[in-house]
Amino acid sequence: MTSPVPEHEKLFDEISNKLNELSQRYQDGSPVEEAPSQQQKLERMQGQLKRFQTDMQGTNEELL
Asked: Contact at 8 Å (CB) between 26 and 32?
């Protein structure tokens, strides 16, 4: 036997769901349509890793 959900818990759930919905719609303060895609983020990270690797190789050569 379960007791009915109190009204304040229903309201809390509804507010939480709306906030979730809004957070999905906006990322970093910009609408999702304007936010970089996952592919763009991945490409940017790969570029950063390549530059870091090049810097590390240069530093390693200097140390030898």
From this structure: yes
The pair of three-digit structure tokens given for residue 27, joined into one six-digit string: 């990322």
Q: Is the distance from CB of 32 to CB of 25 less than 8 angstroms?
A: yes
pTM over 0.85: no
Instruction: Give the closest residue to 49 by CA, choosing from 60, 34, 18, 41.
Output: 41
In angstroms, what CA-CA distances link 13 with 1, 20, 62? 22, 10, 59
* Average pLDDT score over the chain: 80
Q: What is the three-class DSSP state of 51?
A: helix
Tokens 């895609």 belong to which residue? Answer: 37
